[in-house]
Specification:
With 253 residues, this protein is an alpha/beta fold. It has two domains: 183 residues, Vaccinia Virus protein VP39 (Rossmann fold); 59 residues, Helicase, Ruva Protein, domain 3. The chain is built from nine helices and seven strands. The chain has a seven-stranded mixed beta sheet. Strand 2, helix 3 and strand 3 form a beta-alpha-beta unit. The chain is elongated, with a radius of gyration of 20 Å.
């Protein structure tokens, strides 16, 4: 019997559709030369596609019952199961070129991605299942209604793309929203250096503190000596491009 109260607490919706599972595994790609970290393996629907081929596979799971289930399921096979809340996990301890994958709890997906962005980890790529609305924000462009703080913060470090949508019927407990499977690939030349990300993230928060006001209004206390006659200061935060945000950020450094 499904414990719906616990599953809701942890944001757990398990994939059961074999076609969708195969599509996800194929999109991620199995490479026995690369390390993997899976976030929230649940009962191992995605893990099954990697466990026999990947030589270095770790999974972080908050639910102790799932840890016990996976230990029994995989036995002596090569998997490092970590019983921990992903929001307290140290990404900086991960090896170079790690592929980070998972079905992210939709209520904390943004926090997880910001945590990865702020860490010193250098992943090969990220592959996540997220709520479609959140995927739209990650992949938005300037001027789009979905262009937001997470769009900017993630796109100065990664190239984001939505690979395909996932219908609620693919899960054992059908979510009330459509899901998307996304890929995030590190930029060869990040627009903002990782070392500056924490400061840049705070700067973007200030820029978006009032979306309906111009940047001049939002930044007047931060950029006291700026030339507010410049054209981009007259725009709202959702109209500003990544390069323009980079230039504005330089003014406060």
């Amino acid at each position: 019997m499904i414990d719906r109260k616990k599953r809701k607490k942890f944001g757990q919706n398990y994939l059961i559709d074999p076609v969708t599972i195969h599509k996800i595994i194929k999109s991620i790609g199995v490479d026995n030369q690369l390390p993997y970290l899976e976030i929230g393996p649940g009962h191992g629907a995605i893990t099954d596609g990697f466990i026999e081929l990947a030589n270095d596979y770790s999974a972080v799971e908050i639910d102790h019952e799932n840890i016990e289930f996976l230990l029994k399921k995989y036995g002596d096979q090569q998997i490092n199961l970590i019983s921990q809340d992903i929001l307290s996990f140290n990404f900086e301890g991960l090896p170079e070129n790690v592929k980070i994958i998972g079905n992210l709890p939709y209520n904390i997906a943004s926090q997880i991605i910001i945590k990865i962005l702020a860490s010193k980890v250098n992943p090969k790529d990220l592959h996540f299942m997220v709520q479609k609305e959140f995927a739209d924000r990650l992949c938005a462009k300037p001027g789009d209604k979905s262009w937001s703080k997470i769009s900017i913060k993630s796109q100065v470090i990664f190239f984001n793309e939505s690979l395909f949508e996932i219908d609620p019927s693919a899960f054992d407990i059908k979510p009330k929203v459509t899901s998307s499977f996304i890929r995030m690939t590190p930029l060869k030349n990040p627009i903002v250096k990782k070392a500056d990300f924490h400061s840049f993230s705070k700067f973007i928060d200030v820029c978006f503190q009032s979306k309906r006001k111009s940047l001049k209004n939002n930044l007047k206390d931060l950029l006291i000596d700026a030339d507010f006659s410049l054209e981009h200061f007259k725009k709202r935060p959702e109209e500003i491009t990544l390069d323009q945000y980079k230039e504005l950020f330089k003014m406060i450094k």
